[in-house]
Specification:
165 residues, alpha+beta, five-stranded mixed sheet, globular
Length: 165
């Protein structure tokens, strides 16, 4: 019964997401994951992959493909949920796990005051935490808070997400 309740609760926040191995993810989702993984996932990266993702030319497909291939060799069968989520569903998840504010709009305005970036030139996926991480106190959005708030600011109503499982 406990697993059924967890599944029902999870489905409320994971509506429409597809389960996939890393190998079978669309390219943009793989690329998004790599911007996070190069500094955190236990992969033995080659010397030419710095641990600081800001030092990588993410627009150079050869570089990105090399990083993706290295990750695939170690974690190609690792599973993720991915897809497009409605902004309101993401906000519900944030309110459930991360929220100490009375009003989401007030929180968003406060966040944007120190976040002048505009990330809407392309909709790069944000990463959501696994259920296990959420149960142990993790944040709903694992990576991509700046992107998420930029998308909200610009009226984006459907956001690509990838969720750790």
């Amino acid at each position: 019964m406990k697993s059924t309740i967890k599944r029902i609760l999870r489905e409320e926040y994971d509506k429409g997401l597809t389960l996939s191995t890393f190998n079978n993810l669309p390219y943009e989702y793989k690329r998004s994951l790599m911007t996070y993984m190069v500094s955190g996932e236990p992969v033995e990266w080659t010397e030419d992959v710095p641990s600081d993702p800001s030092l990588i030319d993410w627009y150079n497909e050869d570089v990105v493909n090399d990083i993706i291939e290295q990750y695939t060799n170690v974690h190609g069968n690792k599973k993720f949920l991915y897809g497009i989520m409605n902004t309101n569903d993401i906000i519900k998840g944030i309110k459930k796990y991360d929220f100490d504010w009375d009003d989401f709009n007030e929180y968003h305005q406060w966040y944007q005051a120190d976040n002048p970036y505009d990330h809407t030139d392309s909709l790069f996926p944000i990463m959501l935490s696994s259920d296990k991480d959420l149960e142990s106190g993790g944040e709903y959005i694992e990576d991509g808070w700046h992107r998420f708030h930029s998308y909200i600011k610009n009226g984006i109503t459907n956001i690509p997400v990838i969720k750790f499982v």
